[in-house]
Design brief:
Layout: H1 5-20, H2 23-26, E1 31-32, E2 38-55, E3 73-92, E4 95-100, H3 106-135
Antiparallel strand pairs: 1-2, 2-3, 3-4
Length: 142
């Protein structure tokens, strides 16, 4: 069975989209800084695709289904790709941080980033007070 013209149209458009959008579009190439940190750009990629076509009969004769009509074919396809930078992943000094481009959620991101450090400090404070209570030593008030 011969390939329908719309198949070739869609195949060409999909191959073009595949070439444009790959994993390096979403997670960019890493950049190493002089201090040894690695910065990786992170983006949001959205793409859309549409294709359509039709055969235009010259005559009014009836054809069996599945039989090629030989009528002129008209078709088109289109695609759109949107790349929006989201932030930078910074790896260095024993830490991994996400620096967002949009500051609307920066406060929440900072809270989430610092939560483990705050919990460790609170836990060490409780451990200190527990140890001083067990030994009976008084801790100076500062």
């Amino acid at each position: 069975m011969a390939e329908h013209p719309i198949e070739g149209l869609m195949k060409t458009a999909m191959e073009s989209i595949k070439e444009m959008v790959d994993v390096n579009t979403v997670v960019g190439d890493p950049v190493e800084t002089p201090d040894g940190s690695v910065i990786i750009p992170v983006s949001r990629v959205a793409c859309g695709f549409a294709a359509g076509g039709g055969e235009y009969a010259v005559g009014t004769g009836s054809k069996n289904q599945g039989e090629s009509s030989g009528a002129p074919f008209g078709g088109g396809s289109g695609a759109g790709v949107s790349v929006q930078p989201m932030g930078f992943l910074v790896v260095g000094n024993g830490q991994i941080r996400l620096l967002p481009v949009d500051d609307s959620h920066a406060l929440f991101d900072r809270l989430i980033d610092t939560a483990p450090q705050m919990l460790n400090q609170i836990q060490s404070m409780f451990n200190k007070s527990k140890n001083t209570a067990e030994t009976g030593a008084k801790q100076p008030i500062v």
